[in-house]
C-alpha cells in the first residue's frame, strides 16, 4: 500500500510517499525557519502564504524521488487536518482534497500527534539499520512545540493519556528561554548549541511537579521559564549580563538539564508503573542531544528498550503522517474524509480512559 502524505500544520511544508506504514520512499521537507527568524517565532499568515507557494513543488519532488510517475499509481492520499495553525492546515487539506477528488483515491485525515507517535516505527528513504516495530504496551513521550504528552499505547490506534503539560509545552519553554537569553529562533537547537559550552550545575533551577503525587505524570514548564526570567533579573541586578555568551551558556545548560531530567524521570516512572515493553520519545524536542543521552542511560539502567527516531523524523515531516494514516486506515477502513473535510486548530488524540 503506497500512501502520499501531506503535512502543513505549522511552518514545514512536507510530502512523502510511504509503503505499508513502515518504509518511506521519499521524505521532502521545505522548512520556513529562515522566513520566520526575523519575527522571532512562526508568523501564521506568512506561514500559510509560504505553504501555498511551496506545496506543489514539494509534492512533485516527493512523487519523483519515490519513482511514482503519477498520483494514480498510489493507493491513498493522507493529510494532517489538526492540530496546528488553521490557515496552514487548510493549504494541505485543500491540496489533498483536490488530488483525491481528481484521482478518485481515498482521502485519509491524520491527527498530527498520532503522526509524531508513528515517527517511531517508520524508516526514512535509504535508512540503514533496523527500525523497530511497536511492542505493546508502549509508553510514548510526545515532546514538541505545542505538546508534552505521556501516552500508554495498548495497540495500534489505542491510546490512554497518562499525563500532559499543565501549561507550556517543552518546546515552547525552549523557545521562550532562548529568547530571554538572546539566542534566537528556533530556541531548541539554539539552547542545545549554547549549552555545550556551559556548566549544567552552575545555576540551581526548580524541577517542576517532581513531588506531587497527583501530578506524577503531568508536566509544567511555565514556572521554570519564570525561574529563568528571575535568574536573569537577579544577575542583571548584580551587574552581570545574562546574555553574555559565557553566562547564557551556563543558564542554557542548567535549563536543558532540568527539562531533560524531568522528562526522562517521568517517562521511566510511567514505563515501570505500567509494565511497558518499549519506550519511545518523539516530537521536535526529542532531537535534543542531552535528552537523548539521558534517556538512553536511564533506560539501559532499567533494562527498558528505548527508541527515539532519527533527527529528520523528530521535527515535522510527512513520513510520520503516511505511517499513522496506514495503521488508522487498517483499523478503520471507513474513516476516510470527503470534500467536506475540515481543519482543527486543536484536536486531541482519540484516547480511551482505561
Ligand atoms: P506540535 O507538534 O506540538 O503541533 P510543532 O509541530 O510546531 O508543534 P515540532 O516541529 O514537532 O513542533 O517541534 C518543534 C519544537 O522542537 C520547537 O519548539 C523547537 O524549539 C524544538 N526543538 C527542535 N530541535 C530541538 C533541540 N535540539 N532541542 C530542544 N528542542 C528542540
Ligand atoms: Mg516546525
Ligand atoms: Fe509537530
Descriptive account of the structure:
Helix 5 runs parallel beside helix 7 and helix 5 packs antiparallel against helix 8. The longest helix has 29 residues. This protein is 42% helix and 18% strand. With 354 residues, it is of the alpha/beta class. The mean pLDDT is 97. The protein has eleven helices and ten strands. Fe (iii) ion binds next to helix 4.
**Which ranges are low-confidence, i.e. pLDDT below 50, for 5 or more consecutive residues?**
none
C-alpha Rg (nearest Å)? 20 Å
**Percent of residues in beta strands?**
15-25%
Question: Could you describe the largest sheet, including whether it forms a barrel?
Answer: 5 strands, mixed
Mean pLDDT over all positions: 97
- What is the number of strand segments? 10
Distance between the termini: 32 Å
Q: What does the overall shape look like?
A: globular
Task: Give a quick precis of the structure.
By secondary structure, the protein is α/β, with parallel strands linked by helices. Helices cover 42% and strands 18% of the residues.
What are the SSEs and their pairings?
Layout: E1 2-7, E2 12-19, E3 23-31, H1 33-37, H2 44-65, E4 76-82, H3 86-103, E5 107-111, H4 112-118, E6 138-143, E7 148-155, E8 158-164, H5 170-180, H6 187-195, H7 222-237, H8 245-273, E9 278-282, H9 289-302, E10 306-307, H10 311-314, H11 319-331
Parallel strand pairs: 1-4, 4-5, 6-9, 9-10
Antiparallel strand pairs: 1-2, 2-3, 6-7, 7-8
Helix pairs in contact: 2-3, 4-11, 5-6, 5-7, 5-8, 6-8, 8-9
The structure holds adenosine-5'-triphosphate, magnesium ion and fe (iii) ion.
